[in-house]
Amino acid sequence: MQKVIELFYRVLEALLILLLAGMALMVFGNVVLRYGFNSGLNVSEEMSRYFFVWLTFIGAVVAFREHSHLGVESLVAMFGRKGRVICMVLSNIVIILCSAIFFWGTWVQLPINSSMVAPVTGLSMAWVYGVGFFTGGGCVLIALERLIRLLTGRVTEDEIAAFTGENLTIEQMAERT
């Protein structure tokens, strides 16, 4: 099962690379067309915006899995193991609640987004904003899995170190500032 999960995240990372490359190519091509030929492609403007939305929301799930989101590590680092585990439990409960609300909000907004189409491509806006299902659901699943492992005592010291930022090298910490 772990191999399937790793493969899934590698596919997501490849998708993020493709979205970023596609967005960069479309924007660069449009700049060249505008300044070199006094024209442009409207579809590239629209699709680069949508690629950016998808890139951001898919990237949020990948970053959450890797403990790359912002945290108050200086506060958590002051606690012992038990305090850190309690902070991890509370953090994951808050994440589950917020992500579930985000998923539900995407569901409530779906009929409105389905009735609207993009001005240039005619793409249903449900495809653009429907990525909220992936982000909300993905974060809920990751946080639930972490919470279950925390409550059953199967959390590793490496995971606690990743949560508190103690697994980072000095170079990695410098990159974050």
From TrEMBL:
<feature type="transmembrane region" description="Helical">
    <location>
        <begin position="47"/>
        <end position="64"/>
    </location>
</feature>
<keyword id="KW-0812">Transmembrane</keyword>
<comment type="similarity">
    <text>Belongs to the TRAP transporter small permease family.</text>
</comment>
<feature type="domain" description="Tripartite ATP-independent periplasmic transporters DctQ component">
    <location>
        <begin position="23"/>
        <end position="152"/>
    </location>
</feature>
<comment type="function">
    <text>Part of the tripartite ATP-independent periplasmic (TRAP) transport system.</text>
</comment>
<keyword id="KW-0813">Transport</keyword>
<feature type="transmembrane region" description="Helical">
    <location>
        <begin position="85"/>
        <end position="106"/>
    </location>
</feature>
<keyword id="KW-0472">Membrane</keyword>
<dbReference type="InterPro" id="IPR007387">
    <property type="entry name" value="TRAP_DctQ"/>
</dbReference>
<keyword id="KW-0997">Cell inner membrane</keyword>
<dbReference type="GO" id="GO:0005886">
    <property type="term" value="C:plasma membrane"/>
</dbReference>
<feature type="transmembrane region" description="Helical">
    <location>
        <begin position="7"/>
        <end position="27"/>
    </location>
</feature>
<keyword id="KW-1003">Cell membrane</keyword>
<comment type="subunit">
    <text>The complex comprises the extracytoplasmic solute receptor protein and the two transmembrane proteins.</text>
</comment>
<feature type="transmembrane region" description="Helical">
    <location>
        <begin position="126"/>
        <end position="144"/>
    </location>
</feature>
<dbReference type="GO" id="GO:0022857">
    <property type="term" value="F:transmembrane transporter activity"/>
</dbReference>
<dbReference type="InterPro" id="IPR055348">
    <property type="entry name" value="DctQ"/>
</dbReference>
<keyword id="KW-1133">Transmembrane helix</keyword>
<dbReference type="Pfam" id="PF04290">
    <property type="entry name" value="DctQ"/>
</dbReference>
<dbReference type="GO" id="GO:0015740">
    <property type="term" value="P:C4-dicarboxylate transport"/>
</dbReference>
<protein>
    <recommendedName>
        <fullName>TRAP transporter small permease protein</fullName>
    </recommendedName>
</protein>
